Predict the structure.
Amino acid sequence: MGKHFLYAWMLWALFPLCLHAGGSCLSVIHLASERNIVRVDSMFNYLLLPVQDTAPEGMLSVVSGSNHAVSPVFRVRLARDRVDYYVPFPLSGYKACGCLSIDVQGVPSSSVCWASLQLSDSFAVAREEMFRPVYHHTPLYGWMNDPNGLFYKDGVWHLYFQHNPYGSTWGNMTWGHSISADLAHWAFQGDVLHPDAWGAVFSGSVVVDEKNTAGFGAGAVVAFYTSALPTPWGDVQAQSMAYSLDDGKTFVKFAHNPVLTSGKRDFRDPKVFWYEPGKHWVMVLAGGQEMDIYSSMNLRDWKHESSFGIMQGAHGGVWECPDLFELPVEGSKEKKWVLVCNINPGGPFGGSATQYFVGSFDGKAFVNESPVGVKWMDYGKDHYAAVTFSHAPDGRTVLLAWMSNWQYQAVLPTLQYRGANTIARDLSLYEADGDYFLRCVPVPEMREARTDTVQVAPFRVDGKRELLGLLKGNDGACEIELVMEKKDASKISVTLCNQRGESTVLCCDIAHAQWTVDRSQSGMTGFSPDFPAVTAAPLADTPQICVRLFMDRSSLEVFCDGGKSVMTNRIFPSEPYDRLVFESLHGAFDVCSLAVHQLK
Ligand code: FRU
């Protein structure tokens, strides 16, 4: 055996367990009882952890310095028999420590992860997965659920989110941070709030404290979140605070956290806002099957004012992620308050959904003024944890939601990332039959995001009309703007499909004043029995049907009747839909206007 071959073989055998670069080294020691020590003596930025989505969680903590200081525990599904993807474990905070020991418990020595650990200065996050939306916010890597701390300041929309930086399943809840100038293109800024001794960082909100009521400084950005700690005796949830003096880029946790505690087990998701008539802050948060309302003069001391929820709306699951805001009623001088209540399970088509109440609020208590019944903000299966941006400009009320459902989020067919948000929507109220309802329209910024438009000349449909290739070239990401004249048709269907026979069907059942979206043959649907579904919403009794459909590789948001009824559904076609098929069942209708706008 030649000398060079032997050296090459030795190097290969050691790689990547021991990477030599400027003296940096990575080695693994296996102890008894599935305990392991990973030794990192490195100036690298990351230790890349190989993950297998379905592996049990291992527990990882960093032991540093001569006092053996231990970091919080991270739960990582380290690969046992195959590597699905990598997650970056940042080492930058430990550079001064020299040699680091990472204690890994609960991972057998036979696992494939050990040979696949890597030290690196960079981490590849190319947006190459075919189901990654183009103009919707997604995490660059890892799991995402609720949007948190949405706020607007100085031309920038801030979106924090429930992030697991160490895997594409739920865990290690941390606030990730993304920003946007136009609500259609987002840039990840890193993670800003990490788990600590009080627990994981659950959902919450952000306010800008212009008047310095909290004493952190005028204009401080103050975040409220739930510290959630599982203990051997049960879960504990309390509200904590953190402030930022650099416009939300970095946060300092308040030294006297938690700021609000309760004996309730489910007590979370604080939404804070300034109540101008009373000149005080209000916090609304979910406490069991109610929304609890607190007030404060200084953001630090909170007083319970009231609770809302008994005998109100749907109670088929836990109440979570509230919001409370005032909206003008279209065409009048009247204003009403809207209380948003996300509920899981118990949605109209199973699992997670968003209900709301319309009424009055005096700074202390919310009164529902609607007749008995449930109002859904969105009739699709993938609209949850919906909340509004604080301090939106021009008196706007802008909302976005997590585009998913707890029924199947953990098994959606993506790997390096899991989770997406809906497009942002402008909210207003309209009156109908003596009651008040929300109108949700795509933010005008979505019109600005159009890059190219194909306009189709009007045509009549009496039977079937196929527009092959109409959607081609959009790479699965476009807006379809459609106006149809009902004429004497009693049922109209619009099918988005590909040549593999996968299709999602929008059906307007004029006779029954209802429209549906059927995704049961939409592409990949078998990953969960709860995924194939037909969702339904009311259809207005008007001569025309106006719809805007936003398709983005793995989602379809349909805004019908000018945003009076909306449906958001994920779809996973194995190749992008390239055609549209119009069909009239019983009678004929006109397509008066059809435009396909490319969105990038
Ligand atoms: C809603 C929710 C919140 C909680 C968060 C945890 O989806 O359950 O109530 O704060 O997710 O990630």
Remarks:
- The radius of gyration is 26 Å.
- The CA atoms of residues 49 and 87 lie 5 Å apart.
- Confidence is low (pLDDT under 50) at residues 1-23.
- The pocket of beta-D-fructofuranose is lined by residues 145-146, 162, 173, 202-203, 226, 268-269, 320-321, 385 (CB under 6 Å).
